[in-house]
Protein backbone atom coordinates (compact mmCIF):
# COMPACT_ATOMS: atom_id res chain seq x y z
CA UNK A 1 0.00 0.00 0.00
CA UNK A 2 1.38 3.40 -0.99
CA UNK A 3 1.09 5.99 1.81
CA UNK A 4 0.45 9.47 0.38
CA UNK A 5 1.88 12.35 2.40
CA UNK A 6 0.31 15.74 3.12
CA UNK A 7 2.27 18.95 2.49
CA UNK A 8 2.88 19.21 6.24
CA UNK A 9 4.22 15.68 6.38
CA UNK A 10 6.47 16.35 3.39
CA UNK A 11 7.92 19.35 5.24
CA UNK A 12 8.72 17.09 8.20
CA UNK A 13 10.31 14.62 5.81
CA UNK A 14 12.41 17.42 4.34
CA UNK A 15 13.71 18.08 7.85
CA UNK A 16 14.72 14.43 8.26
CA UNK A 17 16.28 14.33 4.80
CA UNK A 18 18.29 17.49 5.47
CA UNK A 19 19.72 16.05 8.69
CA UNK A 20 21.10 13.23 6.56
CA UNK A 21 22.35 15.73 3.96
CA UNK A 22 24.21 17.66 6.65
CA UNK A 23 25.59 14.45 8.14
CA UNK A 24 27.03 13.49 4.75
CA UNK A 25 28.52 16.99 4.56
CA UNK A 26 30.25 16.46 7.92
CA UNK A 27 31.58 13.12 6.75
CA UNK A 28 32.88 14.68 3.52
CA UNK A 29 35.19 16.84 5.67
CA UNK A 30 36.58 13.79 7.48
CA UNK A 31 37.09 11.36 4.59
CA UNK A 32 40.77 10.95 3.79
CA UNK A 33 43.34 8.17 3.57
CA UNK A 34 43.93 6.67 7.04
CA UNK A 35 40.48 7.28 8.51
CA UNK A 36 38.46 4.17 9.36
CA UNK A 37 34.82 3.61 8.56
CA UNK A 38 34.17 3.06 12.29
CA UNK A 39 35.53 6.55 13.03
CA UNK A 40 33.23 8.00 10.37
CA UNK A 41 30.32 6.03 11.83
CA UNK A 42 30.92 7.63 15.23
CA UNK A 43 31.00 11.13 13.71
CA UNK A 44 27.68 10.45 11.98
CA UNK A 45 25.95 9.02 15.05
CA UNK A 46 26.97 11.99 17.20
CA UNK A 47 25.97 14.51 14.54
CA UNK A 48 22.53 12.94 14.05
CA UNK A 49 21.83 12.77 17.80
CA UNK A 50 23.09 16.37 18.29
CA UNK A 51 20.46 17.42 15.75
CA UNK A 52 17.61 15.86 17.68
CA UNK A 53 17.27 12.80 15.48
CA UNK A 54 17.91 9.09 15.81
CA UNK A 55 20.18 7.09 13.47
CA UNK A 56 17.74 5.43 11.07
CA UNK A 57 19.69 2.27 10.30
CA UNK A 58 21.01 1.44 13.78
CA UNK A 59 19.04 -1.62 14.87
CA UNK A 60 16.88 -1.61 11.73
CA UNK A 61 16.61 -5.29 10.75
CA UNK A 62 19.35 -5.66 13.44
CA UNK A 63 21.91 -3.61 11.45
CA UNK A 64 24.74 -2.88 13.95
CA UNK A 65 25.76 0.68 13.01
CA UNK A 66 24.64 4.16 11.97
CA UNK A 67 26.08 4.04 8.46
CA UNK A 68 26.21 1.47 5.70
CA UNK A 69 29.79 1.86 4.47
CA UNK A 70 30.57 0.04 1.25
CA UNK A 71 34.07 0.53 -0.19
CA UNK A 72 35.20 -0.32 -3.73
CA UNK A 73 33.67 -3.63 -4.86
CA UNK A 74 31.01 -3.57 -2.12
CA UNK A 75 27.62 -2.55 -3.49
CA UNK A 76 25.66 -1.61 -0.34
CA UNK A 77 25.05 -2.64 3.30
CA UNK A 78 28.74 -2.81 4.26
CA UNK A 79 29.42 -2.74 8.01
CA UNK A 80 31.83 -0.11 9.39
CA UNK A 81 35.15 -1.56 10.59
CA UNK A 82 38.64 -0.59 11.77
CA UNK A 83 40.31 -0.88 8.36
CA UNK A 84 41.73 2.50 7.27
CA UNK A 85 40.63 3.90 3.92
CA UNK A 86 43.48 4.26 1.45
CA UNK A 87 44.26 6.61 -1.41
CA UNK A 88 42.35 5.53 -4.52
CA UNK A 89 39.45 3.90 -2.66
CA UNK A 90 35.85 4.82 -3.20
CA UNK A 91 33.43 4.62 -0.29
CA UNK A 92 29.64 4.51 -0.61
CA UNK A 93 28.05 5.97 2.51
CA UNK A 94 24.35 5.36 3.06
CA UNK A 95 22.79 7.18 6.01
CA UNK A 96 19.35 7.26 7.60
CA UNK A 97 17.82 9.51 10.26
CA UNK A 98 14.49 9.46 12.07
CA UNK A 99 12.94 12.70 13.32
CA UNK A 100 9.33 13.66 14.04
CA UNK A 101 8.37 10.11 13.14
CA UNK A 102 9.68 10.32 9.57
CA UNK A 103 12.78 8.88 7.96
CA UNK A 104 15.40 10.49 5.76
CA UNK A 105 17.59 8.13 3.74
CA UNK A 106 20.27 9.03 1.28
CA UNK A 107 23.66 8.08 0.01
CA UNK A 108 26.77 9.36 -1.77
CA UNK A 109 29.86 7.60 -3.07
CA UNK A 110 33.01 9.52 -2.16
CA UNK A 111 36.46 9.29 -3.71
CA UNK A 112 39.30 8.87 -1.19
CA UNK A 113 42.29 10.90 -2.38
CA UNK A 114 43.07 10.39 -6.06
CA UNK A 115 41.03 7.74 -7.84
CA UNK A 116 41.46 6.10 -11.24
CA UNK A 117 39.82 7.97 -14.14
CA UNK A 118 37.62 4.98 -14.98
CA UNK A 119 36.35 4.92 -11.40
CA UNK A 120 35.73 8.67 -11.49
CA UNK A 121 33.62 8.05 -14.61
CA UNK A 122 31.59 5.37 -12.82
CA UNK A 123 30.81 7.80 -9.99
CA UNK A 124 29.85 10.59 -12.38
CA UNK A 125 27.59 8.43 -14.56
CA UNK A 126 25.90 6.84 -11.54
CA UNK A 127 25.21 10.27 -10.04
CA UNK A 128 23.88 11.54 -13.38
CA UNK A 129 21.62 8.49 -13.67
CA UNK A 130 20.06 9.38 -10.31
CA UNK A 131 18.90 12.72 -11.72
CA UNK A 132 17.85 11.11 -15.01
CA UNK A 133 15.60 8.84 -12.94
CA UNK A 134 14.30 11.62 -10.70
CA UNK A 135 13.09 13.56 -13.75
CA UNK A 136 10.71 10.68 -14.54
CA UNK A 137 9.18 10.75 -11.04
CA UNK A 138 6.09 12.86 -11.77
CA UNK A 139 2.33 12.43 -11.84
CA UNK A 140 0.97 10.02 -14.45
CA UNK A 141 4.36 8.41 -15.03
CA UNK A 142 4.93 4.93 -13.61
CA UNK A 143 7.58 3.04 -11.63
CA UNK A 144 8.89 1.50 -14.86
CA UNK A 145 9.59 4.94 -16.37
CA UNK A 146 12.13 5.74 -13.63
CA UNK A 147 13.72 2.31 -13.81
CA UNK A 148 13.91 2.36 -17.60
CA UNK A 149 15.56 5.78 -17.65
CA UNK A 150 18.25 4.82 -15.11
CA UNK A 151 18.91 1.45 -16.74
CA UNK A 152 19.22 2.88 -20.25
CA UNK A 153 21.53 5.68 -19.13
CA UNK A 154 23.88 3.33 -17.28
CA UNK A 155 23.83 0.46 -19.77
CA UNK A 156 24.58 2.91 -22.59
CA UNK A 157 27.84 3.54 -20.68
CA UNK A 158 28.50 -0.20 -20.49
CA UNK A 159 27.72 -0.53 -16.79
CA UNK A 160 25.75 -3.20 -14.91
CA UNK A 161 22.53 -2.28 -13.09
CA UNK A 162 22.05 -4.24 -9.87
CA UNK A 163 18.74 -6.11 -9.93
CA UNK A 164 18.39 -7.54 -6.41
CA UNK A 165 18.42 -4.19 -4.57
CA UNK A 166 16.00 -1.36 -5.30
CA UNK A 167 14.79 2.05 -4.19
CA UNK A 168 11.59 2.39 -2.21
CA UNK A 169 8.80 4.51 -0.82
CA UNK A 170 9.79 6.43 2.31
CA UNK A 171 7.86 7.83 5.27
CA UNK A 172 7.08 6.63 8.76
CA UNK A 173 8.78 3.44 7.66
CA UNK A 174 12.23 3.29 6.10
CA UNK A 175 10.95 0.99 3.38
CA UNK A 176 7.43 1.60 2.07
CA UNK A 177 5.69 0.77 -1.19
CA UNK A 178 6.36 1.02 -4.01
CA UNK A 179 9.64 -0.71 -4.74
CA UNK A 180 11.64 1.46 -7.14
CA UNK A 181 13.90 -0.75 -9.28
CA UNK A 182 16.72 0.85 -11.24
CA UNK A 183 15.64 -1.13 -14.31
CA UNK A 184 12.29 -1.59 -15.99
CA UNK A 185 10.00 -0.99 -18.91
CA UNK A 186 8.37 2.29 -19.85
CA UNK A 187 4.72 2.61 -18.83
CA UNK A 188 4.80 -0.39 -16.49
CA UNK A 189 4.17 -0.60 -12.76
CA UNK A 190 2.40 1.60 -10.22
CA UNK A 191 1.29 5.06 -11.33
CA UNK A 192 2.80 8.08 -9.54
CA UNK A 193 0.45 10.51 -7.80
CA UNK A 194 0.71 13.80 -5.92
CA UNK A 195 2.17 13.44 -2.41
CA UNK A 196 4.24 10.31 -3.04
CA UNK A 197 7.71 10.29 -1.45
CA UNK A 198 10.37 7.82 -2.58
CA UNK A 199 14.08 7.14 -2.24
CA UNK A 200 15.61 6.70 -5.69
CA UNK A 201 19.00 4.98 -5.46
CA UNK A 202 20.85 3.59 -8.46
CA UNK A 203 23.40 0.91 -7.54
CA UNK A 204 25.64 0.64 -10.58
CA UNK A 205 28.55 -1.72 -11.24
CA UNK A 206 31.50 -1.06 -13.53
CA UNK A 207 31.21 -4.63 -14.84
CA UNK A 208 28.55 -7.28 -14.47
CA UNK A 209 25.26 -6.46 -12.74
CA UNK A 210 25.58 -9.68 -10.78
CA UNK A 211 26.39 -9.62 -7.06
CA UNK A 212 27.27 -11.93 -4.21
CA UNK A 213 26.07 -11.89 -0.61
CA UNK A 214 28.66 -12.44 2.11
CA UNK A 215 28.40 -14.71 5.14
CA UNK A 216 27.97 -11.81 7.56
CA UNK A 217 24.44 -11.55 6.16
CA UNK A 218 24.95 -7.90 5.13
CA UNK A 219 27.89 -7.21 2.86
CA UNK A 220 27.18 -7.43 -0.86
CA UNK A 221 29.94 -7.24 -3.48
CA UNK A 222 30.09 -7.38 -7.25
CA UNK A 223 30.47 -10.89 -8.64
CA UNK A 224 33.44 -9.84 -10.81
CA UNK A 225 35.11 -7.77 -8.04
CA UNK A 226 34.94 -4.57 -10.08
CA UNK A 227 33.90 -1.29 -8.37
CA UNK A 228 30.29 -0.35 -7.64
CA UNK A 229 28.75 3.08 -7.00
CA UNK A 230 25.58 4.20 -5.21
CA UNK A 231 23.82 7.57 -4.97
CA UNK A 232 20.43 8.19 -3.35
CA UNK A 233 18.01 11.10 -2.97
CA UNK A 234 14.64 11.49 -1.26
CA UNK A 235 12.08 12.94 -3.66
CA UNK A 236 8.45 14.06 -3.29
CA UNK A 237 5.87 14.80 -5.95
CA UNK A 238 4.62 18.35 -5.40
CA UNK A 239 2.40 20.08 -7.98
CA UNK A 240 2.91 17.07 -10.19
CA UNK A 241 6.70 17.47 -10.35
CA UNK A 242 9.66 15.89 -8.57
CA UNK A 243 11.09 17.90 -5.72
CA UNK A 244 14.31 16.95 -3.94
CA UNK A 245 13.97 16.77 -0.16
CA UNK A 246 17.65 15.87 0.26
CA UNK A 247 20.61 17.73 -1.19
CA UNK A 248 24.28 17.06 -1.88
CA UNK A 249 25.00 20.80 -1.37
CA UNK A 250 26.66 20.22 2.03
CA UNK A 251 28.98 17.66 0.47
CA UNK A 252 29.84 20.02 -2.38
CA UNK A 253 30.49 22.83 0.12
CA UNK A 254 32.82 20.60 2.14
CA UNK A 255 34.68 19.39 -0.95
CA UNK A 256 34.77 22.83 -2.59
CA UNK A 257 33.10 21.67 -5.79
CA UNK A 258 30.24 23.17 -7.76
CA UNK A 259 26.87 21.47 -7.62
CA UNK A 260 25.98 20.52 -11.18
CA UNK A 261 22.79 18.54 -11.54
CA UNK A 262 21.13 20.19 -8.55
CA UNK A 263 21.77 23.64 -10.06
CA UNK A 264 19.96 22.50 -13.19
CA UNK A 265 17.04 21.39 -11.06
CA UNK A 266 16.92 24.70 -9.23
CA UNK A 267 16.82 26.60 -12.53
CA UNK A 268 13.76 24.59 -13.46
CA UNK A 269 12.15 25.28 -10.10
CA UNK A 270 12.28 21.63 -9.05
CA UNK A 271 14.17 22.25 -5.82
CA UNK A 272 12.87 24.74 -3.26
MG1 LIG B 1 19.81 4.57 1.73
MG1 LIG C 1 17.14 3.68 0.57
Describe this structure in words.
There is one protein chain. This protein is α+β, with helices and mostly antiparallel strands and 272 residues long. It has a single domain (7-265), classed as Creatine Amidinohydrolase (Alpha-Beta Complex), CATH 3.90.230. 31% of the residues lie in helices and 23% in strands. It has 6 helices and 14 strands. It has helices at residues 7-30, 37-50, 117-134, 143-155, 249-255, 261-267, and strands at 54-55, 67-71, 90-99, 102-111, 160-161, 167-169, 176-180, 197-200, 203-205, 211-213, 220-222, 228-230, 233-238, 241-244. The strands form 4 sheets. A 5-stranded antiparallel beta sheet has the order 7-6-8-13-14. Strands 1, 2, 3 and 4 form a 4-stranded antiparallel beta sheet that branches. Strand 10 (211-213) and strand 11 form a beta hairpin. Helix 1 (7-30) runs parallel beside helix 5 and helix 3 (117-134) packs antiparallel against helix 4. The mean pLDDT is 95. Bound molecules: magnesium ion (2 copies). Residues 94, 105-107, 201, 232 line the site of one magnesium ion (MG).
Secondary structure blueprint with pairings:
Blueprint: H1 7-30, H2 37-50, E1 54-55, E2 67-71, E3 90-99, E4 102-111, H3 117-134, H4 143-155, E5 160-161, E6 167-169, E7 176-180, E8 197-200, E9 203-205, E10 211-213, E11 220-222, E12 228-230, E13 233-238, E14 241-244, H5 249-255, H6 261-267
Antiparallel strand pairs: 1-3, 2-3, 3-4, 5-9, 6-7, 6-8, 8-13, 9-12, 10-11, 13-14
Helix pairs in contact: 1-2, 1-5, 3-4
The structure holds magnesium ion (2 copies).
One magnesium ion binds at residues 105, 168, 199, 201, 232.
